[in-house]
Amino acid sequence: MTHPSDAVLPANAPEFRLTRVFDAPRALVYKCWMNPGYLARWWGPKTMVCPVCEIDARAGGKFRFVMRSADGTDYPVSGTFREVVPDERFVQEVDTSEHPEEWHDAVDPDRKGQGKRKIAMLTTVTFEDHGAGTRVTIVTGFPSMALRDNFAKAGMKEGWSSSLEKLESLLYAVKASPHEIHSTRLLDAPVGMVFKCFSDPKGLAIWWGPNGFTTTTRKLDFRVGGVWDYTMHGPDGTDYPNYVTYTEIEAPHLIRYDHGTNAQHPEMFKAEIRLEAEGGKTRMKLHLTLTDAKLREDMVAFGAVEGAWQTLSRLDAYLSGALAVTPPYNPNAKVRVS
Question: Which of 29, 96, 278, 325 could pair with 134 in a Cys bridge, judged by C-beta atoms 3.0 to 4.6 Å apart?
Answer without folding.
Answer: 29
